[in-house]
Amino acid sequence: MNHPLLKNIKFILGFVAVWTLIAAIHAISTYAYVIDDIALAIADALVFEFLLALFSLALWYVIQYSQPQKSSYFNIFFSHITSAVVFIALWISASIGLLQFISDSDPAFVAFLYKSIPWRIIDGSIFYLLFVLIYYLIIYYNNLQEKLNAEKRLTEMVKEAELNLLKSQINPHFLFNSLNSISSLTLTSPEKAQNMIVKLSDFLRYSIKQSGQNISDLKTELENISRYLEIEQVRFGSRLLFEYNIAENTNSAVIPLMILQPIYENAVKHGVHESTEPVRIITNVFLLGNILNIEIINNFDPEVKSRKGAGMGLKNISDRLKLIYGNELLLKTSIIENNFCVKLLIPQE
Fold first, then answer.
1. 215-217 vs 254-256, strand pairing mode
2. Interhelix angle 73-102/38-66, nearest 10 degrees
3. How far, in whole angstroms, is CA 328 from its chain's centroid?
4. With contact defined as beta carbons under 8 Å apart, do 295 and 246 qualify?
5. Would you give the distance in Å from CA 175 to the centre of its chain?
6. Which residues neighbour 34 within 8 Å (Cβ) at sequence distance 6 or greater?
7. pLDDT tens digit string along 277-310?
8. DSSP characters for 101-169?
9. Helix axes 218-236, 117-188, angle to 10 degrees
10. 180: closest CA among 169, 170, 193?
11. Is the full-model pTM beyond 0.70?
12. Angle between the 117-188 and 190-209 helix axes, to the nearest 10 degrees?
């Protein structure tokens, strides 16, 4: 891991500014209360604080090498006692040796240096503890961020997997029904079967082309729904009618990919298939604020008992909307007289 205090120019300038301030305070207090020679006071401050700054930077690599997140508390405590002794001993001995050279071993100044060792040990210990605390906070913060990012990536992967699973449950269901229809038409009406195969290929080509995407524009989705209804119209003829009422301001609206498919499948399965009279599927689309409203209404024969199904279509839609938008109330169904209505509320950015 790169050094956290040296990873960009702002941190470097901040680090230099802090230590410059500390060195200035050191020089002023030393000159005011201990040494009458301003040059030696400045030299004392620059040498001790400069070396302390270098040792504090090196301490990061010592902590990283010890891997505190994998060590026991006893090992951490023992390693810090050892490194603190080495840290302070090297810092004081190097500083005193360098200042002796700078001052030409001035007797009074050298005596001051050795006399000041106890409070310099205290000073070094405080800075050692301070930087250990700062570095540990940085390590734990970085680990927390890594965990949060990992959890976010995992959540997105799970969400994507769930969405793909739901979409995969929709497409085979339609394909199964269509192939059954084609199978029956090959015997009774080969031309209709051929026409249905062409339309089915166009429909599946759209699904494959959009693979990996979760969002599509409304216009494209409705065009694909028209292909589906035309396929079923080959089978049911005049018993299947459909119309669209699309508001002009919805042209730029977007919806989840193939979210509408199971609704129309249900309308055909429970409406057209079970009725001897024409069934009209009406699609109304309009915007209210930033919410796209999609209403799909089909009439049905209340006297005919509908075939039971697994109920996966509408459940898939509800699950997908919840995964994408985090809201469980975006799908509503109602029965008004002999009309079954499904209403979708799709938030628009």
1. antiparallel
2. 150
3. 21
4. no
5. 34
6. 41, 112, 116
7. 889 999 999 999 999 999 999 998 777 665 555 4
8. HHTTS-HHHHHHHHHTHHHHHHHHHHHHHHHHHHHHHHHHHHHHHHHHHHHHHHHHHHHHHHHHHHHHH
9. 30
10. 193
11. no
12. 170
Token pair, residue 193, equals 């079967």
Nearest 5°: CA angle at 135, between 134 and 139? Answer: 120
What would the two tokens of residue 162 be?
């769930």
C-alpha to C-alpha distances, 253 to 140, 173, 216, nearest whole angstrom: 44, 27, 9
Q: How far is it, in rounded angstroms, from Cα 343 to Cα 295?
A: 5
And the tokens for 50? 């400069």
Backbone φ, ψ for residue 305 (5° rounding): -75, 120
CB 281 within 8 A of CB 267: yes
Which residues, including other chains, have CB under 8 Å from residue 74's CB and lie 6 or more apart?
none
3-state secondary structure of 281: strand
The pLDDT of residue 218 is 92
Domains in the chain, CATH or no CATH each = 9-115 (no CATH), 158-347 (3.30.565.10)
d(CA 118, CA 191): 103
Contact yes or no for 224/285 (Cβ under 8 A)? no
The angle at the Cα of 278, spanning 272 to 280, to the nearest 5 degrees, equals 75
Under the banding of pLDDT at 50, 70 and 90, the label for residue 190 is confident
If you write DSSP's letter for every residue of 213-239 in order, what string do you get? --EEEHHHHHHHHHHHHHHHHHHHGGG
pLDDT in tens, 239-284: 899 999 999 889 889 998 888 888 888 888 888 877 778 899 999 9
Query: In what order do the strands lie in the sheet containing 240-246?
Result: 240-246, 279-288, 291-299, 339-347, 331-336
Contact yes or no for 86/125 (Cβ under 8 A): no
